[in-house]
Design goal:
The chain is of the alpha+beta class and 250 residues long. The protein has five helices and eight strands; from the N terminus they run αααββαβαβββββ. The chain has three domains: 41 residues, no CATH class; 51 residues; 137 residues, Mannose-Binding Protein A, subunit A (Mannose-Binding Protein A, Chain A, Roll). It is rod-shaped.
Length: 250
């Protein structure tokens, strides 16, 4: 079409040929400019896309930071879980070893001790201790003997308590209530105020032919230790039981 216009222009002698050529060149320039504008609009590197590129860079830059925080949080979570597991294991082991005693009982060396306020004979005393989940006390060391003496002293002087020792089966052969024989190196017999040595198996001037077959721990202002006595005698008692194990319900 441009050539046709050119020919028409040449056919007119009054029209300047240079003017016609200039118009044709202007039209071509306008078409090129429009094409350049269209290409710029479609070019992803044009200014209209710069903001989107910045957003993408921001996301890329933020991703490592978020990853670091996630790692820290995961480590913290693992640490807390590990601490909880360790605490649970510690409580299970610790409570089994150092568990407590029932109300009214005294704890010593992982055993519980009950000091009664009422009195019974030796046989009923042991039966009562059994009903409480224990038995009359079995004294196995000097430390345990001293502990019992101190506890009795707290409750006042002139006190006497049955312990789990007897020679009712064979005179002079003492056994504990669990059937174990008395170790002579772990016996704590008292020396009475007359200079005599316990046990003396006193028979009350013949009124008690069987003699004294049951043992009680006696604390007096002038002496303390084990005494054999008549099993029918009414005395307080010391019960012994194992510590209670705390059961953790899961």
């Amino acid at each position: 079409m441009d050539n046709e216009n050119l020919y028409k222009s040449l056919e007119k002698p009054t029209e300047d040929i240079y003017t016609a050529l200039a118009q044709i060149l202007d039209r071509k320039r306008n078409k090129g400019a429009k094409a350049h504008i269209n290409r710029v609009k479609r070019d992803p590197s044009s200014p209209s896309h710069l903001e989107e590129c910045r957003d993408t860079e921001t996301v890329i830059r933020e991703s490592p930071s978020k990853t670091i925080w996630k790692g820290i949080l995961l480590k913290l979570l693992f640490f807390v879980c590990g601490a909880l597991v360790a605490t649970f294991i510690f409580l299970v082991l610790y409570c089994r070893i150092c568990s407590g005693c029932p109300a009214g009982w005294v704890l010593f060396n992982s055993k519980c001790y009950f000091f009664s306020t009422d009195k019974m004979d030796w046989y009923l005393s042991d039966a009562d201790c059994n009903s409480l989940g224990g038995h009359l006390v079995i004294i196995e060391s000097y430390e345990e003997q001293q502990f019992l003496k101190n506890e009795i002293t707290k409750r006042g002087h002139g006190k006497s308590y049955w312990i789990g020792l007897t020679d009712c089966q064979t005179e002079g052969r003492f056994f504990w209530v669990d059937g174990s024989p008395l170790d002579s190196h772990k016996s704590f017999w008292d020396t009475d105020n007359n200079g005599g040595i316990q046990p003396d198996n006193w028979k009350n001037n013949g009124l008690s032919p069987k003699g004294e077959d049951c043992v009680h721990l006696q604390i007096l202002p002038y002496s303390s230790g084990w005494h054999d006595g008549f099993c029918e005698r009414q005395e307080k008692r010391i019960c012994e039981a194992a510590t209670q194990t705390i059961t953790l319900n899961m």
